[in-house]
Design goal:
By secondary structure, this protein is mainly α. The protein has one domain. The chain starts with a helix and ends in an 8-residue tail after the last helix.
Length: about 200
C-alpha cells in the first residue's frame, strides 16, 4: 500500500507543480515587489522516522516572523501570526497557494500529499512529553494535507488532532487518500481556514 500511495504522491505533486508553474512565477514576482525577499519560507520540521527536513512555503509573513512567533502555540500563535501577515500573504493564505511549494518536498520524499502535518522540532519534543504516544505519527511521511486538517481547526487540542492522525495511519488506503484530497479541495474552494501546522 505504501508504494501505491507513494506513486500517487509523485504523480499528483509533479502534475500540480507543472500546471501551476506560471501562476507560481507571477506570485513570486508579486511577493518580491510588495515585500521584498526572501521569496520562500523554509523551516525545520520533524519527518518520517524522526528525520529533520526543510519544509517550503511561499512567504506570507513579514521577514523574520518565525523568530518572533517561535515560542507560541495554539490560539496565541494564531493571534500573533495574523499580525505578521503581509497583504499579498493574506490572499495567498485565503486560496492556500502558499502551500504549493510543499509539493517539491513531496517529490523529494520528505513529505506525502496526505498525512499528519509536519511539526517543528521544539514543539515535537514538548508534545511527546505531554502526549507520550505522539511519536507514533512518525511511522508515515508528514502530509501537505491530512485527516485532522479536513475535520478540525487550529484551536482544537493536539490530542484530538493526534487521534485523527492515528486514525488515518491505521486505515490508510487509496480510497481514504482520495477522500482526504477531495475534502481538502472542498475546503480550499470554500476558503476554509488554513491547515494548522
Amino acid at each position: 500500500m505504501d508504494r501505491v500511495l507513494r506513486g500517487l504522491d509523485i504523480m499528483i505533486s509533479a502534475t500540480f507543480l507543472l500546471v501551476l508553474s506560471p501562476l507560481l512565477a507571477l506570485t513570486a514576482l508579486a511577493i518580491v515587489l510588495t515585500s521584498g525577499r526572501p521569496l520562500f519560507y523554509h523551516g525545520a520540521r520533524v519527518g518520517w522516522s524522526g528525520r529533520l527536513f526543510r519544509m517550503y512555503k511561499l512567504r506570507t509573513l513579514r521577514p523574520d516572523a518565525e523568530d518572533r512567533l517561535g515560542p507560541y502555540l495554539g490560539e496565541e500563535l494564531s493571534r500573533r501570526t495574523e499580525l505578521e501577515v503581509t497583504r499579498i500573504g493574506r490572499l495567498l493564505r485565503a486560496i492556500h497557494l502558499d502551500e504549493v511549494p510543499q509539493l517539491w518536498n513531496v517529490l523529494r520524499g520528505d513529505m506525502a500529499v496526505v498525512g499528519p502535518r509536519p511539526i517543528r522540532p521544539a514543539f515535537f519534543t514538548e508534545l511527546c512529553e505531554e502526549i507520550p504516544q505522539y511519536w507514533q505519527r512518525l511511522v508515515v511521511r508528514p502530509g501537505v494535507t491530512g485527516f485532522a486538517q479536513t475535520r478540525m481547526t487550529r484551536e482544537e487540542s493536539w490530542a484530538d488532532k493526534l487521534a485523527h492522525d492515528m486514525e488515518y495511519i491505521a486505515d490508510r488506503s487509496v480510497s481514504l487518500y482520495i477522500s482526504v484530497l477531495m475534502a481538502t479541495v472542498v475546503k480550499v474552494l470554500g476558503r476554509g481556514p488554513a491547515a494548522p501546522d
